[in-house]
Amino acid sequence: MTLVQMQFRSVSANPAHQTVADAMEAAGPQVCDDMTVEVALSVMASARAGHLLVCDEDGVCAGLVTPAQLAAVRDGDAYTDRTRLRDVLGDRAPSASPLTTMAEAEHAMRYRRLDALPVVDEQGSALGVLALAR
């Protein structure tokens, strides 16, 4: 498991020009997509994390999972103890560039009904997470 350390920049004076990089949180726990749902739930519980960033075998961010998502999968009819995170994520999940404006990211998150969005660099590596304030 890799943890990413972030240094936060000061928020720009004009909120209209604020980028995702100005508001994102540290990435938190990252796991590989071949991890089972049960192990991922245990990792989240022990780390007291509200989400896990999921990466493929090349270290590219494949998406983000929450305890609620994984509990729903676990309670589903198709679930087995061999169900892996890659089976839950499917295709590449949405993500944002650190240069994306906050207005664009917020619109995309609300449109897709996302509570959190991975922030990735040009190679797809996770830099942080943008979470909507409730």
Explain what you see.
- The protein has helices at 20-23, 37-47, 67-74, 85-89, 102-112, and strands at 25-26, 30-32, 52-55, 61-65, 116-120, 126-131.
- The chain has 134 residues and is of the alpha+beta class.
- A three-stranded antiparallel sheet has the order 1-6-5.
- Helix 2 runs antiparallel to helix 3.
Short structural description:
This is CBS domain-containing protein. The protein has helices at 20-23, 37-47, 67-74, 85-89, 102-112, and strands at residues 25-26, 30-32, 52-55, 61-65, 116-120, 126-131. By secondary structure, the protein is of the alpha+beta class.
Helix content: 25-40%
**CATH-level-2 architecture:** Roll
State the domain count.
1
How many beta strands in the DSSP annotation?
A: 6
Please report the distance between the alpha carbons of the first and last residues: 29 Å
Q: Please report the number of helical segments.
A: 5
